[in-house]
Design goal:
Layout: H1 3-15, E1 19-23, H2 29-37, E2 42-45, H3 48-60, E3 67-70, H4 79-82, E4 88-92, H5 95-107, E5 112-119, H6 131-139, H7 141-144, E6 149-157, H8 164-185, E7 194-196, H9 203-208, E8 213-216
Parallel strand pairs: 1-2, 1-8, 2-3, 3-4, 4-5, 5-6, 6-7
Helix pairs in contact: 2-3
Bound molecules: pyridoxal-5'-phosphate.
The site of pyridoxal-5'-phosphate has 13 residues, from β8.
């Protein structure tokens, strides 16, 4: 994508008040650098090891002020490698993982922003909570005791299907979960505001169903 196309995408997203996470996975630092030069600062990776390598590689190219999001499934034993710099962890799908994030964040004296990931797609393989699991997590004494995490919204992926009606229905369901949780648990918390949904192939549908954070990879490259 050249600068003109990038600016036009950014303008489209800005008009809907949607944040762009540029998904840099599987691209070299050299391939990602042009996006940085266009002004992009938020980058998403789905694997911890690659995130660390990409971060180092881009810094070596002189990129500063990068804001890293972990968008994929996160294993508990890898939390410690990203905890001192990660800006947002999108894929929180268990109390155990949240406890580990809290524990590591405490060591670094940080408060780390997280999204609860929901499973709404048809595919069995996609990670995520169902709605009652999320409620149970948020009602648990363990969650109440956590001082070093901040849940700022939800994340999800729609089914990988050409059926736009179904994709739209799944995004609507995610948005509905967001509003239900907000009403029950986060009513007075303006920082609980993010709906991370939509990728290259379905971000317009996601925005029409309430997304305000899209994770776009292939379209940018
Ligand atoms: C790869 C990935 C994306 C971006 O997908 P594209 O189709 O390349 O835009 C978004 N979210 C997650 C969790 C991903 O792993």
């Amino acid at each position: 994508m050249d600068k003109l196309q990038f600016d036009s995408l950014k303008a489209r997203l800005a008009s809907a008040d949607v944040e762009l996470v540029a998904v840099s996975k599987l691209r070299s630092p050299e391939a990602v650098k042009p996006l940085y030069d266009f002004g992009q600062r938020i980058f998403g990776e789905n694997r911890v090891q690659e995130l660390l390598e990409k971060k180092a590689g881009m810094e070596a190219l002189g990129c500063q002020g990068l804001r890293w999001h972990l968008i994929g499934h996160l294993q508990r034993n890898k939390v410690k490698y990203i905890i001192d710099f990660v800006e947002l962890i999108h894929g929180v799908d268990s109390l155990d993982l949240l406890q580990e994030i809290n524990k590591q964040a405490q060591k670094k004296n940080r408060k780390v922003a997280c999204l609860l990931q929901f499973h709404v797609a048809q595919e069995e393989t996609k990670f995520g909570l169902d709605f009652e699991e999320a409620r149970a997590l948020l009602q648990s004494p363990a969650y109440a005791a956590m001082q070093n995490i901040n849940i700022v919204g939800i994340m999800g992926m729609a089914s990988n299907t050409a059926d736009a009606t179904q994709v739209q229905r799944e995004f609507a369901q995610l948005n509905n979960y967001f509003h239900l949780l907000k009403a029950e648990f986060f009513g007075d918390r303006p920082d609980f505001k993010w709906r991370s949904m939509g990728m290259s192939g379905d971000y317009e549908l996601a925005i029409s169903e309430g997304s305000n954070m899209v994770r776009i990879g292939s379209l940018l490259f």
